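Good morning,

Both structures are done.
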Amino acid sequence: MLHAPPLLSVTGLEIEFSTAGARTKAVAGIDFTLQKGEVLAIVGETGSGKTATSLALLQLLNTPPAHITGGQAIFQSEQLGEVDLLQLKEKELQKIRGREISMVFQEPMSSLNPIMRCGKQVAEALLIHFPISKKEAKQRAIELFELVQLPDPAKKFNAYPHELSGGQKQRVMIAMALACNPSILIADEPTTALDVTVQASILNLLREICQKRHMSMLFITHDLGVVAEIADRVLVMYQGKVVEQGTVLDILTNPQHPYTQGLLACRPSLHTHTKVLPTVADFIEGKKVTLESQIEAESSTVSFLSDSDITPLIQVENLQVHLPVRRSIFLQSKEVVKAVDGVSFEIYPGETVALVGESGCGKTTLGRALLRLVEPTNGNVLLDGIAWKNLSSKELRKRRKDFQIIFQDPFSALNPHMTIGDAIMEPMKVHGVLKNRQEREQRVLELLQTVNLLPEHLNRYPHQFSGGQLQRINIARAVALQPMCIICDEAVSSLDVSVQAQVLNLLNRLKREFNITYLFITHDLAVARFMADRIFVMHQGQIVEQGPAQQVFEKPQHAYTQTLLQSIPKGDVNDILTAQEKRKAVKASIDE
């Protein structure tokens, strides 16, 4: 009996990038196959070559500075027969792109046209590939919005991208990719920036659609935790090479390569609380990493909560932030969004409190309102015993020395025209820290060493650093003023898991060295579990649950907290087996 060839067979794929006259090999001769109806997860960190590989398949990289320098990608096309995707002419490629192979990009906001209604963008794909009317395309687009579970599909057809949440925009991208019923769907980090509940629903949606349509999928991710939820096989990439591949069960339960072992180990866990997270570098360098030696005993209560003599560093009473809703450029509505709706809490010196919740719950607004970066509508905020709402602009600027913030996006938080040394020295100069530039520069060099950067980085510009390095620079700038408290607003959410581990370890070390208090804002509950003494759970502008981290995670009281915890992809053996059984059950029901 003859076996059908793989739907896609990639052999010897090589990709190079040319920068400043030098050539860097981004992908170094990789091989893999994709069967019909199979989900193959390509796993690796930023720079591993996984996204470059997927873009090369559709010749979206075939312009300088990127060059496909070798290899084949044999695809069994319904229209053209057996073809090499890397050798197709543009006219032939147009028949393949979007029609037989489509792609969901990582960042939906930059992938959608901001001045074009969402529904028309999906209908456009249908009109290009099929001889149908605009009316038929609109009806089909609305049906696709229903398929991807967008609320009120007819209304969303006429919405612009900025009117939708991140999860909704990603669903629009998925609807667009599915419009022509492709044979292969390439999903490039489709859930990386999404909340856990939205991530869970997107993963379920993609899995079900693949099974119902017998569609194949390349699922690209840096998070091995989500792989068990969706993939049949896993391919692990490191520095442009495939270092390991196999079934999900084999890779996640018995990884052979040190890089794979490191990726699995450096992710914070809900079940074990450790002092220090291992990093990928520890495994690559062959360092002995024993989880048992890192386990830290936890007390059921945080010690300072039982000490009535300690004065809270932060005291918040009935804080409200109401944001107006604009109906047009001429008329401002009287309606308001209650971003923060009557929140009260206390944070003690030396404590780390994690403020968790999904996008839109008000946690970022709350963090900024504490420092009056957003003006509160009502309520009282006392920082180190001082009511900040009564401070003048001059007094406010002076007090901000003690309360710093690290923003989510490390790129936009730094001036691209200012060297790293000047960026760190600027707040020191503003607040009169040290006597002159020479002393400040010496302090900056010490800080760079503290955050594991080199002296030669002092005079470089932000574009010359990776995201993880930039976030460490932002941390150095915040620590330079020796603040009492730092608000970390999704400070590691955009980082690879190994870089994330390095930054989290750094924050904890700085906390011990400088006795810093953290308000750690995050939607990642595993990160919150690793960092926090106490957890505040925020939902629709209110704190619905708070308590010691161990108590909240092991015995959650509020239904919303329970939902958040249940949505986390855990990636353990039981989850893998359960996910496989679910896929088999769905496939059996479809076949019947």
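Second structure follows.
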Amino acid sequence: MTMNPTMLPYGAAEILALRKTGKRPADMILLSLIGPLRGENNPVIVANPTRRYDWRILLDLEVLVIASSATDTTTVKRLLDELKALPTRYLGLWLSDRQNGLHVVVDGVPAHPRGLLRYMSRAERQNFHGIGQHPEYRQCA
């Protein structure tokens, strides 16, 4: 896998190094469009929503895109379309300010826009709860 490292977002170089050895991250990748994520155990990539990147390092991985309802929807849609084209094993969108999300690809199959599996269940929302929220904000709530 030959890539230009300048086309990689923050945190992606470590994943690229792992992929070059023939390995892959065991955990879901958190791709943040809202800045650094504090206290996360999963690998985190921080991307500028207005820039374009080489996403091939995410081929056949599980990826959860973290955005907010203030993130430009056209930009988020473009990014999700780029990731769907790879393809990914799982692709989801988590809106940190709403603490809710959508499935885009599940087990390599695109979720139907009006399908039941499109929306995250209560258990899934609880599993992702807190992602993208700063600890200082959680204490004030």
